[in-house]
Amino acid sequence: MNARRALYFDGRSSRAHAVEAAIDGGELALHGDGVARREPLSALRITARLGRTPRTIAFADGAQLVLDDADDLDAAFASADRVQSWVDRIERRWRSVALAPAISVATGVLLLQFGVPWGAERIARRMPATVEAGLGRSVLDQLDRWAFEPSTLPQARRDALAQRFADLLEPGEDASVRIAFRHAPKIGANAFALPGGTIVFTDQLVALVGDEREFLAVAAHELGHERHRHTLRQALQGSAVAVLAALFAGDVSSAGSVVVAVPTFLLDGHYSRAFESEADEAAFATLVAHGISPRWFATIMRKLEAEASDTTELPYLSSHPPTAGRIARAERLADGFEAALPAQHAAVH
Q: Among 127, 83, 129, 148, which Cα is nearest to 258's?
């Protein structure tokens, strides 16, 4: 850096000393107005470049040197802050400035498309069981106030279905997964996998079932949602602020505030296509493992589809959107299953 005029403040008074500053042998040398000082550049800090505004060099003892900006300043202090130098070079290129808004938008889209779902899954998997169970109880309490009434199904019918449901559980799941029945005239035929392991079936769904294997097909699908934490993950994905806050804080329990979003999602939203596909595949695997044809899944789905076209209530398919592809997938698997076990597929298991 060539010698130049600058203002030096000693840090003890407000007086400005007019000095000449130059870099000599890796040191900053000052002289003039009673000031004579040399300091190694490694002990100094220079403020970031902002247009052509004056720069300030800070000394360890609190003194400061204010001088006009110049390119050779950055060359002299290049090793002091390489990141800032790189940022400054980008800021001075008009193409970089022009691209900045597009890069910001693309970054935001990628964060919402991939970052938030990844974070939601991470939080859902790591959320303590006690926290998730408490979240599930809170959600069910809210649904009981807003949309549910006590079940009117005979106790014997509920007990029989609960036993069939228990047959689908994997070892150890009976301690964390439970079944519940509710009368829901405002909702209609539906089933919900709540956080914490509670799976709710409405009386209206049970009334639609003609064969218990249809009930088991729905149960297997909801177990798929539960095992993959889909409800919690979907609600978290809709609460990006809660996800990001929990990730940055390192406290997944703090994401429990998303409880207010779960009932709304269950009643008015629907699972993503990826979650539905994952739950379907889990259901097909569960049914086959228990000797039940996936065709029963297609059968109950068609019934639910017909129910949806004949009612103004909120049906199962509002939160589990149907596609011809899902039914076709179930029937293709059923064809293979029934061909392998022709004598058994028609029996109730």
A: 127
What is the model's pTM? 0.61
The domain spans of the chain are 4-91, 110-340
Q: Alpha-carbon distance 29 to 27, whole Å?
A: 6
How many C-beta neighbours within 10 Å does residue 294 have? 26
- Given a contact cutoff of 8 angstroms between Cβ atoms, the answer to whether 186 and 304 are in contact is no
| Residues 147-190: tens digit of each pLDDT | 899 999 999 999 999 999 999 999 988 888 999 999 999 889 99
Kindly report the number of other CB atoms within 10 A of residue 126's CB atom. 11
Report the amino acid identity of residue 342: P
Give domain 4-91's CATH architecture. Roll (2.30)
CA angle 221, 282, 287 (to 5 degrees): 75
CA distance 189 to 215: 12
Indicate the helix (H) or strand (E) that contains 325. Answer: helix 324-340
